[in-house]
Design brief:
The chain has 381 residues and is α/β, with parallel strands linked by helices. The chain has two domains: 188 residues, Rossmann fold, CATH 3.40.50; 159 residues, Glycogen Phosphorylase B (Rossmann fold), CATH 3.40.50.2000. It is 38% helix and 17% strand. It has an eight-stranded mixed sheet with strand order 3-4-2-1-5-6-7-8. The protein has a six-stranded parallel sheet with strand order 11-10-9-12-13-14, sandwiched between helices. Strand 10, helix 7 and strand 11 form a beta-alpha-beta unit. It is globular, with a radius of gyration of 21 Å. The C terminus is likely disordered.
Protein backbone atom coordinates (compact mmCIF):
# COMPACT_ATOMS: atom_id res chain seq x y z
CA UNK A 1 0.00 0.00 0.00
CA UNK A 2 1.31 3.43 -1.00
CA UNK A 3 0.10 6.15 1.35
CA UNK A 4 0.46 9.92 0.93
CA UNK A 5 -0.04 12.13 3.99
CA UNK A 6 -0.63 15.85 3.51
CA UNK A 7 0.10 17.83 6.67
CA UNK A 8 1.14 21.42 7.37
CA UNK A 9 3.99 20.24 9.66
CA UNK A 10 6.17 17.16 9.99
CA UNK A 11 7.76 15.60 13.05
CA UNK A 12 10.96 17.69 12.79
CA UNK A 13 9.17 21.03 12.66
CA UNK A 14 10.10 23.18 15.68
CA UNK A 15 6.35 23.73 16.14
CA UNK A 16 5.27 20.10 15.90
CA UNK A 17 2.77 18.89 18.48
CA UNK A 18 0.36 16.07 19.23
CA UNK A 19 -0.94 15.80 15.66
CA UNK A 20 2.55 15.35 14.27
CA UNK A 21 3.46 12.83 16.98
CA UNK A 22 0.33 10.82 16.13
CA UNK A 23 1.16 10.89 12.42
CA UNK A 24 4.82 9.98 12.91
CA UNK A 25 4.26 7.13 15.36
CA UNK A 26 1.65 5.55 13.09
CA UNK A 27 3.47 6.16 9.81
CA UNK A 28 6.76 4.63 10.90
CA UNK A 29 4.94 1.49 12.02
CA UNK A 30 3.09 1.32 8.71
CA UNK A 31 6.48 1.34 7.01
CA UNK A 32 7.64 -1.52 9.24
CA UNK A 33 4.49 -3.42 8.26
CA UNK A 34 5.52 -3.15 4.60
CA UNK A 35 3.68 -0.04 3.39
CA UNK A 36 5.24 2.92 1.58
CA UNK A 37 4.57 6.28 3.24
CA UNK A 38 5.25 9.75 1.87
CA UNK A 39 4.67 12.76 4.14
CA UNK A 40 4.27 16.14 2.39
CA UNK A 41 4.61 19.17 4.70
CA UNK A 42 5.90 22.73 4.95
CA UNK A 43 9.49 23.93 4.91
CA UNK A 44 11.17 25.47 7.96
CA UNK A 45 14.53 27.07 8.64
CA UNK A 46 17.44 25.34 6.94
CA UNK A 47 15.82 21.91 6.85
CA UNK A 48 16.39 19.61 3.86
CA UNK A 49 13.73 19.69 1.16
CA UNK A 50 13.55 15.90 1.26
CA UNK A 51 14.77 13.24 3.67
CA UNK A 52 13.98 9.76 4.95
CA UNK A 53 12.98 9.42 8.61
CA UNK A 54 12.36 5.91 9.95
CA UNK A 55 11.54 4.82 6.39
CA UNK A 56 9.06 7.68 5.85
CA UNK A 57 9.81 9.84 2.82
CA UNK A 58 9.48 13.49 3.91
CA UNK A 59 8.94 16.15 1.22
CA UNK A 60 8.86 19.81 2.30
CA UNK A 61 7.60 22.67 0.16
CA UNK A 62 6.33 26.14 1.00
CA UNK A 63 5.57 27.72 4.34
CA UNK A 64 2.79 26.84 6.76
CA UNK A 65 0.69 29.42 4.87
CA UNK A 66 1.51 28.25 1.33
CA UNK A 67 1.94 24.49 1.90
CA UNK A 68 -1.67 23.78 0.90
CA UNK A 69 -1.17 25.35 -2.52
CA UNK A 70 2.23 23.65 -2.88
CA UNK A 71 0.58 20.29 -2.12
CA UNK A 72 -1.91 20.90 -4.94
CA UNK A 73 0.89 21.78 -7.38
CA UNK A 74 3.03 18.85 -6.32
CA UNK A 75 0.10 16.44 -6.60
CA UNK A 76 -0.71 17.54 -10.14
CA UNK A 77 2.93 17.32 -11.23
CA UNK A 78 4.37 14.41 -9.23
CA UNK A 79 1.81 12.50 -7.14
CA UNK A 80 -1.26 11.94 -9.31
CA UNK A 81 -1.93 8.23 -9.90
CA UNK A 82 1.00 7.07 -7.76
CA UNK A 83 -0.73 6.39 -4.43
CA UNK A 84 -3.41 4.03 -3.15
CA UNK A 85 -4.57 6.41 -0.42
CA UNK A 86 -4.21 10.13 0.30
CA UNK A 87 -4.71 11.25 3.92
CA UNK A 88 -5.73 14.90 4.17
CA UNK A 89 -4.72 15.96 7.66
CA UNK A 90 -6.82 18.97 8.65
CA UNK A 91 -5.25 21.22 11.24
CA UNK A 92 -7.15 24.53 11.04
CA UNK A 93 -6.90 24.78 7.22
CA UNK A 94 -7.60 21.76 4.96
CA UNK A 95 -5.84 20.69 1.77
CA UNK A 96 -9.19 20.57 -0.10
CA UNK A 97 -8.35 17.15 -1.58
CA UNK A 98 -11.98 16.30 -2.49
CA UNK A 99 -11.67 18.97 -5.23
CA UNK A 100 -8.68 17.46 -7.05
CA UNK A 101 -7.41 14.12 -5.66
CA UNK A 102 -8.71 11.18 -7.70
CA UNK A 103 -7.28 8.39 -5.55
CA UNK A 104 -9.04 7.03 -2.49
CA UNK A 105 -8.77 9.56 0.27
CA UNK A 106 -9.61 10.12 3.91
CA UNK A 107 -9.77 13.18 6.13
CA UNK A 108 -7.93 13.04 9.44
CA UNK A 109 -9.44 15.72 11.69
CA UNK A 110 -7.91 15.94 15.16
CA UNK A 111 -10.08 18.83 16.31
CA UNK A 112 -12.11 21.73 15.00
CA UNK A 113 -10.51 25.15 15.34
CA UNK A 114 -13.70 27.02 16.27
CA UNK A 115 -12.98 29.49 19.11
CA UNK A 116 -9.22 28.93 18.82
CA UNK A 117 -9.39 31.40 15.91
CA UNK A 118 -10.23 34.18 18.36
CA UNK A 119 -7.21 33.38 20.55
CA UNK A 120 -4.58 32.94 17.86
CA UNK A 121 -5.49 35.44 15.13
CA UNK A 122 -6.58 39.06 14.93
CA UNK A 123 -9.97 40.47 13.98
CA UNK A 124 -11.46 40.27 11.33
CA UNK A 125 -9.37 37.24 10.22
CA UNK A 126 -10.50 35.40 13.35
CA UNK A 127 -14.16 35.89 12.46
CA UNK A 128 -13.58 34.90 8.84
CA UNK A 129 -11.74 31.73 9.88
CA UNK A 130 -14.43 30.81 12.39
CA UNK A 131 -17.18 31.23 9.78
CA UNK A 132 -15.30 29.51 6.93
CA UNK A 133 -14.63 26.31 8.88
CA UNK A 134 -18.25 25.25 8.56
CA UNK A 135 -18.22 25.71 4.78
CA UNK A 136 -14.91 24.07 3.87
CA UNK A 137 -15.57 21.05 6.06
CA UNK A 138 -18.70 20.39 4.01
CA UNK A 139 -16.39 19.23 1.22
CA UNK A 140 -15.40 16.22 3.34
CA UNK A 141 -18.82 14.85 4.19
CA UNK A 142 -18.70 12.28 1.37
CA UNK A 143 -15.30 10.77 2.12
CA UNK A 144 -14.21 8.67 5.11
CA UNK A 145 -13.41 10.76 8.16
CA UNK A 146 -11.04 9.78 10.96
CA UNK A 147 -10.58 11.48 14.31
CA UNK A 148 -9.14 10.70 17.75
CA UNK A 149 -11.91 11.65 20.19
CA UNK A 150 -15.64 11.40 20.75
CA UNK A 151 -15.69 15.18 21.26
CA UNK A 152 -14.52 15.88 17.72
CA UNK A 153 -16.86 13.23 16.34
CA UNK A 154 -19.81 14.96 17.99
CA UNK A 155 -18.65 18.32 16.60
CA UNK A 156 -18.61 16.83 13.10
CA UNK A 157 -22.03 15.22 13.49
CA UNK A 158 -23.43 18.64 14.38
CA UNK A 159 -21.99 19.93 11.10
CA UNK A 160 -23.94 17.32 9.14
CA UNK A 161 -21.39 14.51 8.81
CA UNK A 162 -22.83 11.00 8.85
CA UNK A 163 -22.41 8.69 11.83
CA UNK A 164 -19.67 6.61 10.19
CA UNK A 165 -16.78 8.59 11.67
CA UNK A 166 -13.98 6.35 12.92
CA UNK A 167 -12.25 7.18 16.20
CA UNK A 168 -8.58 6.19 16.15
CA UNK A 169 -6.72 5.21 19.34
CA UNK A 170 -3.73 7.20 20.52
CA UNK A 171 -0.57 5.90 22.14
CA UNK A 172 2.45 6.88 24.20
CA UNK A 173 6.13 6.53 23.14
CA UNK A 174 7.45 4.75 26.24
CA UNK A 175 6.70 1.91 28.62
CA UNK A 176 4.47 2.93 31.56
CA UNK A 177 5.75 2.58 35.10
CA UNK A 178 5.17 -0.76 36.80
CA UNK A 179 4.00 0.84 40.03
CA UNK A 180 3.03 4.38 41.09
CA UNK A 181 6.04 6.53 41.86
CA UNK A 182 6.51 7.82 45.40
CA UNK A 183 6.43 11.57 44.75
CA UNK A 184 8.57 14.09 46.58
CA UNK A 185 6.67 15.63 49.49
CA UNK A 186 7.04 19.17 48.09
CA UNK A 187 3.94 19.64 45.87
CA UNK A 188 4.54 20.53 42.23
CA UNK A 189 2.45 21.10 39.11
CA UNK A 190 3.48 20.89 35.48
CA UNK A 191 2.26 22.30 32.19
CA UNK A 192 3.61 20.80 28.96
CA UNK A 193 2.85 22.32 25.57
CA UNK A 194 3.46 25.22 23.22
CA UNK A 195 3.31 28.67 24.77
CA UNK A 196 0.24 29.75 22.86
CA UNK A 197 -2.61 31.96 24.02
CA UNK A 198 -5.17 29.23 23.28
CA UNK A 199 -3.42 27.02 25.85
CA UNK A 200 -4.42 29.64 28.46
CA UNK A 201 -1.27 29.26 30.52
CA UNK A 202 -2.12 32.64 32.01
CA UNK A 203 -5.13 30.95 33.64
CA UNK A 204 -2.80 28.40 35.22
CA UNK A 205 -0.59 31.15 36.63
CA UNK A 206 -3.64 32.97 37.99
CA UNK A 207 -4.83 29.72 39.58
CA UNK A 208 -1.38 29.19 41.10
CA UNK A 209 -1.44 32.46 43.01
CA UNK A 210 -4.73 31.27 44.58
CA UNK A 211 -3.28 27.85 45.40
CA UNK A 212 -0.27 29.52 47.02
CA UNK A 213 -2.51 30.98 49.72
CA UNK A 214 -3.24 27.43 50.95
CA UNK A 215 0.00 25.77 49.87
CA UNK A 216 2.81 28.36 50.04
CA UNK A 217 5.52 25.96 48.83
CA UNK A 218 3.66 25.02 45.61
CA UNK A 219 5.82 24.85 42.46
CA UNK A 220 4.82 25.11 38.78
CA UNK A 221 7.00 23.85 35.92
CA UNK A 222 6.18 25.35 32.52
CA UNK A 223 7.67 23.15 29.81
CA UNK A 224 7.51 24.21 26.18
CA UNK A 225 8.27 26.98 23.71
CA UNK A 226 6.90 28.35 20.46
CA UNK A 227 3.94 30.65 20.07
CA UNK A 228 4.12 34.41 19.73
CA UNK A 229 6.89 36.15 21.74
CA UNK A 230 4.39 38.65 23.12
CA UNK A 231 2.49 35.91 24.92
CA UNK A 232 5.61 34.57 26.65
CA UNK A 233 6.34 38.10 27.84
CA UNK A 234 2.79 38.40 29.17
CA UNK A 235 3.26 35.22 31.19
CA UNK A 236 6.45 36.54 32.77
CA UNK A 237 4.73 39.82 33.61
CA UNK A 238 2.01 37.84 35.39
CA UNK A 239 4.63 35.93 37.38
CA UNK A 240 6.07 39.24 38.52
CA UNK A 241 2.65 40.75 39.22
CA UNK A 242 1.63 37.90 41.51
CA UNK A 243 5.09 37.62 43.10
CA UNK A 244 5.47 34.02 41.94
CA UNK A 245 9.13 34.16 40.91
CA UNK A 246 10.06 31.60 43.54
CA UNK A 247 7.18 29.29 42.58
CA UNK A 248 7.43 29.07 38.79
CA UNK A 249 10.20 27.77 36.51
CA UNK A 250 10.19 28.15 32.72
CA UNK A 251 12.06 25.23 31.19
CA UNK A 252 11.54 26.05 27.52
CA UNK A 253 11.90 23.21 25.02
CA UNK A 254 13.35 19.99 26.47
CA UNK A 255 14.08 16.55 25.04
CA UNK A 256 11.70 13.64 25.58
CA UNK A 257 13.70 12.04 28.38
CA UNK A 258 13.83 15.30 30.36
CA UNK A 259 10.13 15.90 29.73
CA UNK A 260 9.24 12.47 31.12
CA UNK A 261 11.41 13.00 34.18
CA UNK A 262 9.76 16.36 34.87
CA UNK A 263 6.26 14.88 34.51
CA UNK A 264 7.12 11.79 36.56
CA UNK A 265 8.35 13.89 39.45
CA UNK A 266 5.38 16.27 39.42
CA UNK A 267 2.23 15.68 41.46
CA UNK A 268 -0.26 16.96 38.87
CA UNK A 269 -0.32 17.91 35.22
CA UNK A 270 -2.47 20.97 34.47
CA UNK A 271 -4.33 21.88 31.26
CA UNK A 272 -6.42 24.97 30.64
CA UNK A 273 -6.65 24.96 26.81
CA UNK A 274 -9.56 26.27 24.79
CA UNK A 275 -9.82 22.85 23.13
CA UNK A 276 -7.63 19.86 22.24
CA UNK A 277 -7.82 16.92 19.86
CA UNK A 278 -7.18 14.56 22.77
CA UNK A 279 -4.45 15.78 25.07
CA UNK A 280 -1.81 13.07 24.56
CA UNK A 281 0.27 14.63 27.31
CA UNK A 282 -2.48 13.61 29.78
CA UNK A 283 -2.13 9.96 28.76
CA UNK A 284 1.66 10.22 29.00
CA UNK A 285 1.36 11.72 32.48
CA UNK A 286 -1.04 8.97 33.56
CA UNK A 287 1.48 6.35 32.42
CA UNK A 288 3.96 8.05 34.77
CA UNK A 289 1.43 7.93 37.66
CA UNK A 290 0.70 11.66 37.45
CA UNK A 291 -3.03 12.58 37.54
CA UNK A 292 -4.43 15.67 35.83
CA UNK A 293 -6.50 18.68 36.73
CA UNK A 294 -7.93 20.31 33.64
CA UNK A 295 -10.63 22.42 32.13
CA UNK A 296 -13.61 20.42 30.89
CA UNK A 297 -13.01 21.02 27.19
CA UNK A 298 -13.27 19.13 23.91
CA UNK A 299 -10.69 16.36 23.68
CA UNK A 300 -9.39 16.57 27.24
CA UNK A 301 -12.71 15.34 28.61
CA UNK A 302 -12.08 12.19 26.53
CA UNK A 303 -8.57 11.75 27.93
CA UNK A 304 -9.54 12.15 31.61
CA UNK A 305 -11.91 9.97 33.59
CA UNK A 306 -13.29 12.51 36.04
CA UNK A 307 -12.49 11.74 39.70
CA UNK A 308 -10.55 8.63 38.65
CA UNK A 309 -7.55 9.64 36.54
CA UNK A 310 -7.90 13.35 37.20
CA UNK A 311 -10.35 16.16 37.82
CA UNK A 312 -12.34 18.13 35.25
CA UNK A 313 -13.46 21.55 36.40
CA UNK A 314 -17.16 22.39 36.71
CA UNK A 315 -16.42 25.85 35.33
CA UNK A 316 -13.46 26.77 33.18
CA UNK A 317 -11.90 29.57 35.18
CA UNK A 318 -8.78 29.97 37.37
CA UNK A 319 -10.76 29.96 40.63
CA UNK A 320 -12.31 26.53 40.02
CA UNK A 321 -9.02 25.23 38.61
CA UNK A 322 -7.26 26.24 41.84
CA UNK A 323 -9.92 24.49 43.91
CA UNK A 324 -9.38 21.24 42.01
CA UNK A 325 -5.62 21.46 42.52
CA UNK A 326 -6.01 22.11 46.25
CA UNK A 327 -8.48 19.23 46.60
CA UNK A 328 -6.05 16.69 45.20
CA UNK A 329 -2.95 18.00 46.92
CA UNK A 330 -4.54 18.11 50.37
CA UNK A 331 -6.48 14.82 50.29
CA UNK A 332 -3.69 12.24 50.37
CA UNK A 333 -5.97 9.19 50.27
CA UNK A 334 -7.82 10.49 47.23
CA UNK A 335 -4.55 11.40 45.55
CA UNK A 336 -3.05 7.95 46.19
CA UNK A 337 -6.08 6.23 44.67
CA UNK A 338 -6.10 8.55 41.69
CA UNK A 339 -2.39 8.04 41.10
CA UNK A 340 -2.94 4.27 40.85
CA UNK A 341 -6.01 4.57 38.64
CA UNK A 342 -4.19 7.01 36.36
CA UNK A 343 -1.31 4.56 35.97
CA UNK A 344 -3.71 1.70 35.21
CA UNK A 345 -5.33 3.81 32.50
CA UNK A 346 -1.95 4.88 31.13
CA UNK A 347 -0.99 1.26 30.58
CA UNK A 348 -3.77 0.93 28.00
CA UNK A 349 -2.05 3.26 25.51
CA UNK A 350 0.40 1.96 22.93
CA UNK A 351 1.50 3.30 19.55
CA UNK A 352 1.87 -0.29 18.34
CA UNK A 353 -1.78 -0.83 19.19
CA UNK A 354 -2.71 2.51 17.63
CA UNK A 355 -0.98 1.75 14.32
CA UNK A 356 -2.46 -1.75 14.15
CA UNK A 357 -6.00 -0.62 14.93
CA UNK A 358 -5.76 2.35 12.57
CA UNK A 359 -4.78 0.07 9.70
CA UNK A 360 -7.63 -2.26 10.64
CA UNK A 361 -10.08 0.67 10.55
CA UNK A 362 -8.75 1.78 7.18
CA UNK A 363 -9.08 -1.76 5.84
CA UNK A 364 -12.52 -2.48 7.28
CA UNK A 365 -14.32 0.84 7.07
CA UNK A 366 -12.94 2.90 4.21
CA UNK A 367 -13.51 0.27 1.53
CA UNK A 368 -17.26 0.46 2.04
CA UNK A 369 -17.56 4.18 2.62
CA UNK A 370 -15.95 5.78 -0.41
CA UNK A 371 -17.93 7.61 -3.08
CA UNK A 372 -20.39 5.47 -5.01
CA UNK A 373 -18.15 5.90 -8.07
CA UNK A 374 -15.42 3.98 -6.22
CA UNK A 375 -16.93 0.64 -5.28
CA UNK A 376 -14.01 -1.72 -5.85
CA UNK A 377 -12.94 -3.34 -2.58
CA UNK A 378 -9.40 -2.71 -1.37
CA UNK A 379 -7.22 -3.92 1.48
CA UNK A 380 -4.30 -2.47 3.46
CA UNK A 381 -2.72 -5.68 4.65
Amino acid sequence: MKILILSWRDIKSPFSGGAEIFTYENARRWVTAGHEVTWFSSDFGNCPKEEIIEGIKIIRRGTEITVHYQAFRHYKKNFKGKFDLVIDQINTIPFLTPLYVKEKKAALIFQLAREVWFYETFFPLSLIGFAMEFFYLKLYRRIPVLTISESTKQDLLKLGFNKEISILPVGIPFEPLEEPLAKDFNPSLIFVGRLRKSKRIHHIIEALQMVKKDIPEIQLKIVGSGGKPGYAKKLKRLVKKYNLGGNITFYGHVNEETKRDLIKNSHLIILASVREGWGIVVSEANALSTPAVAYNIHGVRDAIIDWQTGLLTKKNNPQVLSEGIITLLTDRNLYAKMKQTALNKGKEFSWDKSAEETLAILNKDLSGRENTRQTKRWKYY
